[in-house]
Design goal:
heterodimer; A: mainly alpha; two-stranded antiparallel ribbon; 4 strands; 67% helix; B: 520 residues; mainly alpha; globular
Chain lengths: 156, 520
């Protein structure tokens, strides 16, 4: 976050309407909080309201907010990977989640569960969760790519 | 398993508990393979060299998978895999019969040929825009549509292939392309929406979306359900997709704008998905309503054929001429659907397979002609025969094939359809097929006489060669067409078995419901 802010303060020129000091200072923390919340929504989605799609939307809005406040290039640096690449990785992950059933002699996309004990806590891992993470990545990547493309046009 | 506390008898009623044989995975393999490769290609989309190196072997692998699937279906009959082991009609089933497997293999072969041709035709910039990822996603959508056994799932695959085809259509973002893409997008979206509405009505009537379940229940409903309305909405939706008269203006308006490989793949594959869906719904699921509408479909077929072949004669741009020839082919296939008997349906299936291969080859041919002659217009194109006799020979073979002259692959299905038409007293459809064949021959020979035989005004001809990326797919597809034309028996037998399987879907139903269709 500190890196993003230093980059911003170095940027010369007049600021636009949404670009107030308060918003610019708060946005990175808000983004971090929203991304964290999106992961929470994603993971609780198996049995309760939530899931990959809505989690992905929350994450994408987080990156859109960062884009509005601190500029698109800041988001691209923070994401590390190109949003489209993230979406493609999600698609591959979702497809692989279905293919795993091949090794258990069950049809495509049959749910497979594992309950490993990690540090004394039973963790439920499953292929539906893997699929949902794939959906999360597809939605995050695709919507972020669209949002950044729209915001970039304004920057020109 | 989390569900281990539930008694076994209850599980048996809702889930497939028997282990799935490995070869049944071939049912789902083509779309999953395409999605996976497509996703990987998107991730490495900035690395052009890697794209080609990954894509061509992956397309070769797809053809092998498709061929293996066809072999398994020939040996075992229709096979079904239910997603997530939930039993149909609640679980989504992928059911492959001979029709689906044949269409799927032709699609794989066309995709491989198109991929190789793209190495020459699609330049670096357009490959950066993502030709190969879109190609894989589109082919995944097309094969998913051919293989699924669930009508809503069919709609989803339509969407997958449609969205990828938008991407392919506007590669390069030229003004002309955006114009063509707008017409294409709007009409296709209307068609898809109609399809969705039809699926909604169908679900309200039947309470199920599984095709086998619907096919079993349709005869028992009688006159209690708005079956004619439902069928009409389906017919309208699929005819739009298939570019039948009078909703076909979008095809010639858009198919000449994208890169030639893209146009060829669209011409070969996308209209055939509409035809396939029409055959699946009106022949297998609602045969009674299909018979009732046979006159309507027949009239549309005749008008489609005639407008297509007349349009082909009127064009001076080769690509537009080919666009109209695609439409003629659709009319011929629809005529087979209208006639409805086993010989007619097998003729329609055979013609669809022929058209997938030959239309792509014709577009590739047009691309090479445009590069060698410097123009797509028949006013300017000349001397191609003198430039490259080999290319002229391949072109002539393809023109004969599309016109339906022996010994090429277009001849046999047309002969079957004409015979079926006269046998069943629909002489006007038989006559229309013959007349449209004559008109197509005139259009093709006119193009050949102007572009290939005519010597340029200056008289000087520089010999030209085809590159490997041009020659291999064109020659491969042409040889396939000639091979099928000279030795048609295997494909003929397969098409007849496939048609019987559609008209009497006992084996299809048994594959989805081994212990009989559940009664409500």
């Amino acid at each position: 976050m500190a890196k993003i802010q230093s980059e911003q303060s170095a940027r010369p020129g007049p600021r636009r309407g949404m670009d107030t000091l308060i918003f610019r200072t708060m946005a990175p923390y808000l983004t971090a909080l929203m991304v964290l919340f999106s992961v929470f929504v994603l993971l609780r989605g198996h049995n309760e309201p939530g899931g990959g799609f809505i989690g992905g939307l929350i994450a994408a809005s987080a990156f859109a907010i960062l884009g509005i406040s601190n500029g698109v290039s800041a988001v691209r640096r923070a994401l590390w990977f190109d949003p489209i690449t993230i979406a493609a990785a999600g698609l591959a992950l979702a497809a692989l989640a279905g293919v795993l059933s091949l090794f258990a002699d069950v049809p495509f996309m049959t749910a497979l569960w594992a309950f490993p004990n990690i540090f004394g806590t039973e963790v439920a891992l499953s292929t539906p969760m893997m699929f949902d993470i794939g959906v999360y990545l597809v939605v995050t990547g695709a919507i972020t790519a669209i949002a950044l493309a729209l915001e970039e046009r304004e920057d020109d | 398993m989390a569900a281990s506390s539930i008694p076994l008898e209850a599980l048996e009623k809702s889930m497939v508990l028997a282990p799935v044989p490995a070869e049944h995975w071939l049912v789902i393999a083509p779309p999953v393979w395409c999605m996976l490769v497509g996703a990987i290609l998107i991730m490495v989309r900035k690395r052009m060299g890697l794209q080609s190196w990954l894509s061509i072997p992956a397309l070769g692998g797809l053809v092998l998978i498709d061929a293996a699937l066809l072999a398994v279906v020939i040996r075992e009959g229709p096979i079904t895999m239910v997603m997530g082991r939930w039993l149909p009609p609640f679980g989504i089933a992928f059911t492959v019969d001979l029709t689906g497997a044949l269409f799927n293999l032709a699609c794989g072969i066309a995709a491989l040929a198109g991929g190789i041709a793209a190495l020459g035709d699609i330049d670096r910039t357009r490959r950066t825009y993502g030709f190969f990822p879109f190609l894989f996603l589109m082919v995944g959508g097309v094969s998913g549509a051919f293989l699924t056994g669930d009508i809503f799932n069919l709609y989803v695959w339509f969407e997958v292939l449609l969205i990828s085809s938008f991407g392919l259509l506007i590669l390069g973002s030229e003004r002309e392309q955006l114009d063509g893409a707008t017409k294409y997008a709007i009409l296709n979206l209307i068609g898809t929406t109609l399809f969705l509405i039809a699926v909604g009505i169908l679900y309200a009537v039947f309470g199920t979306l599984n095709m086998a379940d619907i096919a079993a229940k349709a005869p028992t409903l009688g006159h209690d359900a708005p079956m004619m309305t439902l069928s009409l909405v389906f017919i309208a939706a699929f005819m739009m997709k298939a570019a039948a008269f009078p909703v076909n203006f979008w095809l010639p308006a858009s198919y000449h704008t994208p890169r030639i490989v893209v146009a060829g793949l669209f011409a070969g594959l996308l209209t055939k998905v509409g035809v396939y869906a029409l055959i699946r719904v009106m022949v297998m699921m609602f045969p009674e309503e299909g018979n009732a509408y046979s006159i309507v479909i027949g009239v549309v077929a005749v008008l489609t054929m005639l407008t297509g072949s007349l349009g082909a004669i009127a064009q001076s741009d080769i690509r537009r001429m080919l666009g109209y020839m695609v439409i003629t082919g659709i009319g011929i296939i629809l005529s087979g659907v209208a006639l409805g008997a086993q010989t007619a349906i097998s003729g329609a299936l055979f013609y669809s397979l022929h058209s997938m291969i030959v239309m792509l080859a014709l577009y590739l041919m047009a691309g090479i002609a445009g590069r060698m002659g410097g123009s797509f217009s028949l006013h300017e194109l000349s001397g191609l025969y003198a430039k490259s006799p080999l290319f002229a020979a391949l072109t002539l073979a393809l023109f004969f094939s599309v016109s339906g002259l022996p010994p090429f692959s277009g001849f046999w299905p047309k002969a079957m359809l004409v015979k079926a038409a006269f046998d069943f007293g629909a002489w006007w459809q038989g006559a229309a097929i013959l007349v449209s064949g004559l008109l197509t021959t005139i259009a093709a020979t006119r193009a050949f006489a102007l572009g290939w035989w005519r010597m340029p005004a200056s008289g000087a001809v520089v010999p030209a060669r085809m590159t490997a990326a041009e020659l291999i797919p064109l020659a491969g597809l042409t040889l396939l067409s000639v091979g099928v034309g000279i030795y048609p028996e295997p494909l003929l037998a397969l098409a007849q078995t496939a048609a019987s399987g559609l008209l009497e879907p006992v084996a299809y139903l048994h594959s989805v419901f081994p212990s009989g269709v559940p009664t409500p």
